[in-house]
Amino acid sequence: MWLRHHDRNSIWQEMEKMRQQLDRVSDGLTGRIVPSFPALNVWSNADGLLVTAEIPGVEPSDLDIAIVNKTLTLSGKREPASLDDGARYHRRERGCGQFSRTIELPYRVESDQVEATFKNGVLTIALPRAEEEKPRRIVVQAV
Question: For the purposes of burial, counting CB atoms within 10 Å of the CB of 62, is it exposed (0-12), middle (13-18) or buried (19 or more)?
Fold first, then answer.
């Protein structure tokens, strides 16, 4: 029995939905952790922290960075790719829509001196350590 073109497409769509459902079920059974978006790296030195986030396809104007006490929240949205008329997805793994990540910082930062840059899909946030949080060297005096 031959299927018409649109019937074949709907079969592929249904198979893709079933595959995604099976992936979700198997993730629950195996305890596999679904990575958070966006992926973050955080490192520090004596002067402060540097946070990088991989967010390709996101416009800088769609990002929001907030710092409250020792908490950094990065949120934004990635718009779905627009397809030409008649185009259809055969595989769609890149997510779109709203996202938010909140991390606790190891110390307070000078929030008024935070700088953020965006290049090649990577957001870099420089967070200078608050002066009162910087380690102080105590000189031991001989008595």
Answer: middle
- Using alpha carbons, select from 105, 127, 108 the residue that is nearest to residue 116: 127
> pLDDT tens digits, residue range 26-42?
666 666 665 688 999 99
What residue type is assigned to position 126 of the chain?
A
Q: How far is CA 109 from CA 51, 68, 117, 133, in A?
A: 13, 10, 17, 8
Q: Is 110 exposed, middle or buried (0-12, 13-18, 19+ CB in 10 A)?
A: middle
Is pTM, for the whole model, over 0.85? Answer: no
- Residues 5, 13 contacting (CB under 8 angstroms): no
- Pairwise CA distance, residues 103 & 7, whole Å: 47
Q: Show the tokens assigned to 132.
A: 């009162």
The amino acid occupying position 10 is S
Cβ distance 38 to 52 under 8 Å?
no
Chain position carrying tokens 């949080």: 133
